[in-house]
Amino acid sequence: MSTTAIAPDPHTAVPTGPPTGAARLAWAVADGWTVTRRDVTHWLRRPGALVAGLLFPILMVLIFGYLFGGGMTVPGGGDYREFMIPGMFAMTMVFGLGETVTAVVNDTSRGVTDRFRSMPMAPSAVVVGRCAADMLKSAVTLAVLVGSGLLVGWEWHGGAGSTLAALGLLLLLRFALVWVGIYLGLLVKGDSVVTTVQTLEFPLGFLSNAFVATATMPVWLGTMADWNPMSSTVAAARELFGNPGWGGDSWIAQNAVLMAVVWPLLITAVFAPLCVHRFRHLED
Description:
The protein is an all-alpha fold and about 280 residues long. The chain has helices at about 20-45, 45-70, 80-110, 110-115, 125-150, 160-185, 190-205, 220-225, 230-240, 250-255, 255-280. Helix 3 runs antiparallel to helix 7, helix 3 crosses helix 9 and helix 9 packs across helix 11 (about 255-280). The model is unreliable at about 1-15 (pLDDT under 50).
């Protein structure tokens, strides 16, 4: 019994990427936007989870502003709520790391990521779409937090340009941490690892100048807190908002605005390529 090989139909096109650089970029953007819409649609279909995610930072503002705020003093003077609110903004951006890891792990465990990889789509589309969707959610969360801060007595004292720059630096920090979250989500497996990542958010967030001045810490601990990328963003936001508590004697504290840009760019430069590479080699 002989076996005859069946030649492929010459009229059947094999999915390949566009041949030119500009066409490949357009292809990646279109596919990334499709993935972004998919993630946003999931949130709109489950508004309860979205609302719960927005209520947590509001609750934190109330706890630190009213329960703890009365017993806290700001070095150099000033209202503690105005000192604390920029730190809470940055803390919320950091706490989004766990949400990103959870979403990516869930997609991987349900086979959604493998399905995407089998489709004729740009390799970067899934990670870029995830990043864009998380940034949209983060922008909404930050807007809600700004409203909450205004209600508890916080306000900015700089001009519109400085205020927008402060909000931009907060979102830039979140942008960098989204890439970290995507990479960890593609790297790890299992809910236990996700829980570990979420637990690590607390030392990353609290080992900073978000709620207390680093000058009040032991020298070695204060130095670690000063060099936490989140501390640079918090200090820069306070400076641009015109809130009390910014400044310090160390080089990193004196150049907070500069480092609030440099840290996220460095983190993104490392983890964005790692995300795309990991997505392409998930079976390895």
